[in-house]
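We close this part of the discussion by returning to an individual protein. In the encoding step, the backbone of a single protein was reduced to a row of integers, each denoting a local shape. The sequence in question and its structure tokens are set out directly beneath this paragraph.
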Amino acid sequence: MGKLKDQLAGIAALIAAIVAIGGGFVKYGEITTKLDALEAREQSVVDTSGIESSVAVLEEKVAKLEGKKAVVVDLSGIENQTAVLEEKVAKLEGKKEVIVDLSGIESEISDIDTNLSQTKTKSLVNATEIELLKVQIEEIKVSTSNPLAN
């Protein structure tokens, strides 16, 4: 009679362990599905067809930096072009009046800076969510490691 009780207790513990492991796999599947949905939702496209060649260079740099946590934009190319344009204007002042309108480029740069800020914020939110999910997975692992805890 004692052996039968021991065997039944062992079978019950085995069933509890299998159920706990199955529950962990189900939770892992849910988390993976949520992560896939978040990744699919985060993709956005910026239309920069009207920007001049210097802004195209900045767009390439943005594309390279989208995956990084900290985003730094080098605007020295635009500043250098502005300095070159100012020198040309200074040379032409004696010949005829030249008006340079940089408002279009400045608004495009402002749009790019806004998009970079949003991308950085989204990246930081995603990193925090991933850390939270890792902690939750660890909690699940710990809670399922003891079959008698449930």
